[in-house]
Amino acid sequence: MFMLFTRKDNLEGQSLSDFLADSDVKLRNIIRECGNRYCAFNNRASEAEKESQVQELVELIEEMVQSNRGDYFTDAIYKDTEKRLRQREEDLKKIYTDQLNNEIKLVEKEYAHKSQEEREEKIKWLKRIYDEQLKNIREEAEKGIFEHVLDGIRRVLSQIWHTFW
User: Fold this and answer.
1) What is the pTM assigned to this prediction?
2) Running along the chain, 165 residues long, what does each successive block of 10 average in pLDDT?
């Protein structure tokens, strides 16, 4: 993650590094969490300055990719995400299995006075639903992980917001 500041023109000759060194400890902590990757854009820059600013940002990205051995994300991020996905899949499978077992028990009670064939047909239908849930378990787990990542981003943005307001 990068911190991209706008309104560099308001620094009035002060370097961004000096400004950040004198800034609130919360902001410095957030920047540290971003791997000390930051830059600022001047809103009133000329076209040449704008190109230079974009080039600076691209260079920061390339440096990060090089430090991550050619990846935009570190291996640790992939491993953590995969671990979370597997755990979420296991949790969902347990939830779906418990749900199936509870529904089968209910069917057995509700269909106790009906024919064996009706009871078995209803249970077979419940198992088909369960099988469909298992087929889609990876996508379901990914939705949960995506929401988790978004929550993390929201927390960081909230910290930034509170730092400045």
Assistant:
1) 0.48
2) 84 87 84 84 87 88 77 62 86 94 92 89 93 89 74 73 64
Same domain, 10 and 62: yes
Q: Are residues 63 and 104 in the same domain?
A: no
Burial of 46 (0-12, 13-18, 19+ CB in 10 A): exposed
| Alpha-carbon distances, residue 74 vs 8, 109, 146 (angstroms) | 30, 53, 17
Nearest to 41 by CA among 31, 30, 52, 29: 52
Range of the domain at 24: 3-68
- Locate tokens 């249970």: which residue? 123
The last residue of a domain, from among 15, 49, 68? 68
